[in-house]
Fold these 2 entries.
Entry 1:
Amino acid sequence: MTLKRILVCAGIVPCLVISAAAMLRPRVVPGGYILERDSEVQSTEAGPHSGGGKTTAYSFFKRAPGLTLVFRKRALTPGSGIGYHLQTEDEIYYVLSGRGAMTIDGKTFDVGPGDAILTRPGSSHGLKQVGSEDLVILINYEQAPQK
């Protein structure tokens, strides 16, 4: 085999392999957006983690492929709650309105509008609505990508 043939083959074969691999990857188009409204995603549910009572859950973007961020809003009616449970990932609660009693690792404290609470893996926590007004919160955490 001549040097010229070796150089041509050495250049072409890797290019073909790289091109074939690129064709097998899913094509990702940059940009775009998804708009969802409360009325489109709301559902009535019992308080999660056996928290009791009635809540309105807003699970935004739960069908977005590849999204690892969970973004939820939840309205807890009087007497409802999120049951005490072990946390397996970082999770953020943000209080939009109403009052609540949050318990983390056995310590209970009041939460209200403007409060943000980060719960860390290995901790346990629960949240109860208190007062006459719904407790409305945003909840964010990461999960495995949706397919």
Note: The two ends are 48 Å apart (CA to CA).
Entry 2:
Amino acid sequence: MCRIVLFASAIMLPSLLITNFVSAADTNKESVTIEIDANLLKRARAQDLDLASILEKQLKVRLGTSANAPSTDYLAFLTATFDNFESMMFAPLKVNAQTPTADVRKVCKAMNKSVEQLVADAETRKSMPLPTSLEEAKKLDEYIQSRFKAFQGRAAKVGQQAANSTQIMKSKCADLDMDDTAARTAMQSVFAGYGPAGWCQAMRGKPEAQWTMDDSQNFVKFCTGAN
């Protein structure tokens, strides 16, 4: 079963899906030497992952540095992840009955690589805090839903072409299996927690002494069922 099976199932993902963190460039760099598991390093190299960038971004998230501004980081993360998702989902459109086998397999491999990146993004998402601004949470949720709506519209138009490509890719990429369940789970994890519900969850973890009056009023409105 080739990775292409994700095309049909992803269309059915809930619209509350949703996140890649791109911080501002930092010229204050320093070379360091670290030890890393050889197998992990091999897998990272196979995916062309930028290890230095991943380490730096993870540290900024965990240490809460000023360079990790929530609005910029969340939007960049969501944009990059959704771009990767769409690139992966529409990659089969490059395949038809006349496409050489070697080129079909290149598409399959590229899709598998995108899935690996999506799973990596899901792991990154786990270490990122939820938005603590209700307004920001709403805007991020609106962005996600608008992107997903656009994706659904395009997907509906090319559904038959994708189905035809599925059969071609299954026959020529049978040895490049990918667990589409894992990919869908990763997608849900990456895109979760951005609407009012995500903000409510974040506020429950924040000491009430740090809440503003607006926070308290919005919590009652959006998180307790009271009007």
Note: The radius of gyration is 20 Å.
